[in-house]
Amino acid sequence: MQAPITPGLDRVNQFSAEEHMTMSHHYSGPNFGFPRADARLDLTDLYAFPKPGDVEKSILIMNVHPSSTVIDPEPTTNEPFSPDGLYEIKIDTNGDAVADIAYRVRVSSLPGAMQIATVRRVEGALAAGTDDGGEVVFLEAPVSTGRGAQVTEAGDYRFFAGWRSEAFFFDTLGAVNDLHFTGTDFFSDKDVCSIVLEVPNSALGTKPVGLWARTLHKQSEGWVQVERGARPQQAVFLPGDQKEAYLAGEPADDAPVCRNIRARA
């Protein structure tokens, strides 16, 4: 059922409306830190699955911003998303590892520690670009900063953004300490910030699709990609310069990266 994919390219998760897709990508910055030293730009998870009880829709979830550092653990900022960040879910509909559809989320901060999000959709060649334009799906939707979930609806779409309990579990402190595991789930009391899109399957095309997520940071020269991922934890297997190149790269160019990962495994 899955669309063709170039052999050896282990860089895009493939998903059809009958399947589930997940990943974990925590702490992929330098020294198990964050891109640009900003936890709000750190991609942690990507999920895709059919909407329970509705075969005509799918759920796409992009998690960012771990609530704690991992080395000498301490809380990160309370602000969920970066106003200088762009959060994207990229969708490849024809198996060439180039985005044909993109959902783009920009967040603005308001007085009183509040935030609002605007979601745009873009298709075709523009979906593979580095821009924050596109057709507006949600305009200034509220971001949830507490336990309550503020869900916004627009046509066949639904949207949520805000803090949620961390779903990933792992003995992270043991893993970064030469695999001297402690038997403790580091994430049991941690949170992440979720971007959740409920989309009609008709918006994804008629075939299985490839999915990945990325974050970008606004610079004087424009938007700069600082993080991306699809398969679990590839970046952790790459040394310094190779890791930076991978996080800034595109799935269509990942064949050398995958060879390096296999060689180090």
A few lines on this structure:
The protein is mostly beta strands and 265 residues long. The protein has helices at residues 172-175, 240-248, 255-264; strands at residues 13-15, 43-50, 57-64, 85-92, 101-110, 114-123, 135-142, 152-154, 157-165, 191-200, 209-219, 222-229.
Walk me through the topology.
Elements: E1 13-15, E2 43-50, E3 57-64, E4 85-92, E5 101-110, E6 114-123, E7 135-142, E8 152-154, E9 157-165, H1 172-175, E10 191-200, E11 209-219, E12 222-229, H2 240-248, H3 255-264
Organism: Mesorhizobium kowhaii
Pfam families: DUF4331
Protein name: DUF4331 domain-containing protein
Describe the protein in words:
The protein has 265 residues and is mainly beta. The protein has one domain. It has 3 helices and 12 strands, in the order βββββββββαβββαα. The radius of gyration is 18 Å and the shape is globular. InterPro entries: DUF4331. This is DUF4331 domain-containing protein. Pfam families: DUF4331 (PF14224).
